[in-house]
Design goal:
Strand content: 15-25%
Largest sheet: 9 strands, mixed, barrel
Strand order of the largest sheet: 1-4-5-6-7-8-9-10-11
Helix content: 10-25%
Number of helices: 5
Structural class: alpha+beta
Order of helices and strands: HHEHEEEEEEEEEEHH
Shape: globular
Radius of gyration: 21 Å
Length: 366
């Protein structure tokens, strides 16, 4: 998948060189830029969103303080980030010394993931360029807070990875049910399928299929399928909580507006509760660009509603099958290791790198 992904997200030279004024933080959901583009119409008479799109990028949900507080990066910052990423990709593509030990590999890791490099860059495909919105290189997706961070309530406790804490006395490796959904192949890693749909370590490809009654999104990561029901304004009963929630959509001009509630309680996004509501907008702004905005509400966890935006890029080709459990012994190894710790009484504490990697994974980091 790496070769496909590296070629998939090649942005327009014109878009990449536009210099636009920085967008200030806003208390309102972001609106799509006015580009004058008129999208072709699908059979249902609405703008055609169909095709294969990718969100692969080195930009993430929250701004990286290392690159400053501004939403918009300078050209120098953009070149530095993309240059460093290219060097990492080039290093990962080189043949590995057959005599190398795992302790020799950290320089080849993708984002320094895990003790002794559990992934090197050759196996990942998070993207190679900074995300651009209407030509602006961005330092993060969130646009509605001044620092570009998720506005958490200070009186609500969630763990350092943005997830709700385990029950007292429970451990993350007590049984399969306490491991992450992605490790159990139940739902995508990070938040690839959404809502909010976020790029991750690899498999950032989506196929949109559109009819007059539904828009379906085939998510490459863990082969999730998002079903967006149209022509209704009524959610399913609150007692029914499917994976990825209950999404209902309608058209406002050229934008598909999707409201999602009724999230499964195991699918936790940034510590949100059962009251989470996410509103998304999908708008074609160019032949090969799909503007995506999101608005997140849960007053029991977040200090204020918040949102942001990015752009999908159109690609050729198809979404490939994601086979998760076949030949996968990772979950078995995790549980066996935990039982060995129980037997010996020797606990292997996670390193700072492990913690940062897990936090990055929950944020869709690559």
């Amino acid at each position: 998948m790496s070769a496909k992904g590296l070629k998939a997200l090649v942005f327009s030279t014109v878009l990449g060189t536009l210099v636009l004024p920085a967008a200030p933080a806003s208390a309102q959901p972001p609106t799509p830029p006015k580009t004058g583009y008129k999208a072709p119409l699908a059979a249902d008479g609405h703008p055609d969103l169909q095709g294969v799109w990718t969100s692969a990028t080195v930009t993430r949900l929250e701004r990286n303080p290392r690159d400053g507080a501004s939403l918009v990066l300078t050209e120098a910052q953009t070149q530095k980030i993309e240059g460093k990423t290219k060097a990492q990709i080039d290093l990962g593509n080189k043949p590995t010394d057959p005599n190398a030990k795992v302790t020799d590999l950290p320089a080849d890791c993708s984002g320094g993931r895990g003790t002794n490099c559990n992934y090197n860059a050759a196996w990942t495909d998070p993207g190679s360029v900074v995300m651009r919105v209407n030509g602006q290189p961005r330092n993060g997706f969130i646009t509605t807070t001044s620092d570009g961070r998720v506005p958490m309530r200070k009186d609500v406790k969630v763990n350092q990875f943005g997830q709700r804490t385990l029950k007292p006395g429970a451990g993350p490796s007590d049984n399969p049910e306490t491991r992450a959904l992605g490790e159990r192949c139940l739902l995508s890693f990070g938040n690839s399928s959404g809502p909010v749909m976020l790029p991750g370590l690899y498999n950032n490809t989506y196929q949109f299929v559109q009819t007059k009654d539904e828009v379906a999104i085939d998510v490459e990561m863990v082969h999730d399928i998002r079903h967006i029901r149209l022509n209704t304004s009524t959610h399913i009963p609150a007692s029914v909580r499917p994976w990825m929630g209950d999404s209902i959509g309608h058209w406002e001009g050229n934008s598909l507006v999707v409201e999602t509630t009724n999230f499964n309680p195991e699918q936790v996004f940034r510590g949100a509760s059962e009251h989470l509501k996410v509103t998304e907008r999908f708008t074609r702004t160019a032949k090969d660009r799909l503007h995506y905005s999101f608005w997140v509400e849960d007053p029991t966890v977040f200090a204020q509603p918040w949102g942001g935006e990015y752009e999908f890029s159109k690609i050729t080709g198809q979404v490939y099958e994601y086979a998760c459990h076949e030949g996968n012994y990772g979950l078995v190894g995790i549980l066996q290791g935990a039982r060995e710790e129980d037997r010996t009484g020797h606990k292997t504490a996670p390193t700072n790198i492990d913690q940062k990697a897990k936090a990055a994974d929950d944020d869709g980091e690559g």
